[in-house]
Amino acid sequence: MQQMDVDIDVPAFLNKEKQSVPAGLQNYYLEFEDLYDRKLWHQLTEKVLEFLKEPESGPHQISLFQKFVVDWENKINKLSLVFIGLTVAQKFTELQDSVNFLSDIITKVDTPETKDAYVYAVMETAYFRLLMGQSEETKKGIDECEKILDQFDSVETVIYASFYRVSSEYFKAEADYAQYYKSALLYLACINIDEQLSKKEREDRAFDLAIAALLGETIYNFGELLMHPILDSWSGTEHEWLRTLLFAFNAGDIGKFESLAGHFSKVCFQPVLQQNLNQMSRKICLMSLIEAVFKRSGDNRAIPFSDIAAETRLPNEEVEHLVMKALSLNLIRGSIDQVDQIVIVTWVQPRVLDREQIDGMRKRLDKWNKEVNKIATFVQQEGGEVFAQ
Predict the structure, then answer these.
(1) Which residues of the chain are modeled with pLDDT < 50?
(2) 3-state SS string for the chain
């Protein structure tokens, strides 16, 4: 639904609308007319943005844009123009009309000086295309905007939020769990979840992140998610057990995982966990291996196969394959001594730690500090005799 170049009688439109809108909105039209006549474009923009937040304004937003805002849109800050356009686009009943409307705005902000607004408009248009099932067009928009954003030194947070939100929705639709997990967490970092997401949206986002963490083939540390306040949205809901499951996975606690597996079939509206039970079992074995290595001190990382078998509950003959998988995923680095059946680990993937893991590290540091003090005391006591000789 492209905009057409037509002469607009602004005073006549505002006067007519003023008489037809609810009483609570009439004063806006008086102010619109006053600010328009005085050419106070910034104040007028702010007043329009305020109007769009009014619950009763919905049925009047399209006409306000098409018969009023377009008359002075070249005076509006381009980012504000996109924000106004996005709000209005949501009021069309047909998604294609929304896409056409936003496409027209894209052409108006496609200048070298307003690439930030351009990215915002393209990403939000891509979201409407995603809702229409146009995955390829959505991906093209994401790829184009990613290249543009890489060239910015800084940009408004709302633009990054838009980019990561739409990207995460695309990856969710494609069942790309690892990319969804990354994009969704970056999106949450750009917003105030208490102010910008409803309780239902927080619950849904937390659930999707949990599923992505559990099924993402390259995600082997949940620390960032476990420390995120988005999980607090589960308190008192049917998904509260998922938090326990995430902590169990992050700690490589196979016993806890097996005890919680009975809940999977109860998630009847999304049985994806039940369907991927074997994959999850393999994944928690890897996470158990990582945690076993992480808990050991740096001078105690020559680990017998038998210890790994006990930690992961795998037969001894399957340990080598598990370690090779961990090495191929770059979760650990080291070597396998097949003769003595020992794994020598020289490096373990850095992790975002949960509180329990931080406490464990604190205890190891305390132990190391005591050993250093013991050596220092010995040197002080015995060193005098060495230097005296």
Answers:
(1) 1-5, 268-269
(2) CCCCCCCCCHHHHHHHHHHHCCHHHHHHHHHHHHHHHCCCHHHHHHHHHHHHCCHHHHHHHHHHHHHCHHHCHHHCCHHHHHHHHHHHHCCCCCHHHHHHHHHHHHHHHCCHHHHHHHHHHHHHHHHHHHHCCCHHHHHHHHHHHHHHHHCCCCCCHHHHHHHHHHHHHHHHHCCCHHHHHHHHHHHHHCCCHHHHCCHHHHHHHHHHHHHHHHHCCCCCCCHHHHCCHHHHHHCCCCCHHHHHHHHHHHCCCHHHHHHHHHHHHHCCCCCHHHHCHHHHHHHHHHHHHHHHHHHCCCCCCEEEHHHHHHHHCCCHHHHHHHHHHHHHCCCEEEEEECCCCEEEEEEECCCCCCHHHHHHHHHHHHHHHHHHHHHHHHHHHHHHHHHHC
This prediction has a pTM of 0.86
CA atoms of 101 and 108, how far apart (whole Å):
11
pLDDT at 266: 61
Distance CA 243, CA 226 (A): 8
Q: What local confidence, expressed as pLDDT, does residue 389 receive?
A: 52
Considering all CA atoms of the chain, what is the largest pairwise distance in Å, rounded to the nearest integer? 107
Q: How many C-alpha atoms does 191 have within 13 Å on its Cβ side?
A: 23
- The first and second tokens of residue 110, run together, are 């496609």
- Enumerate the β-bridge partners of residue 345: 334
Task: Dump pLDDT digits (tens) for 275-307.
Answer: 888 999 999 999 999 999 988 877 778 999 999
Q: Which pLDDT score, from 0 to 100, does residue 342 have? A: 95
**Would you state the pLDDT for residue 296?**
84
pLDDT of 263 reads: 67
- If we measure between CA atoms, which residue out of 79, 70, 131, 130 comes closest to residue 101? 70
pLDDT of residue 211: 94
Beta bridge partners of 336: 343
Nearest by Cα to 128 from 99, 171, 100: 99
> Residue 236 in contact with residue 265, Cβ under 8 Å?
no
The pLDDT of residue 374 is: 76
Residue 164's CB is within 10 A of a number of other CB atoms, namely: 21
Here the tokens at position 52 are 């769009």
What is the number of alpha carbons within 13 Å of residue 302 lying toward its C-beta? 6
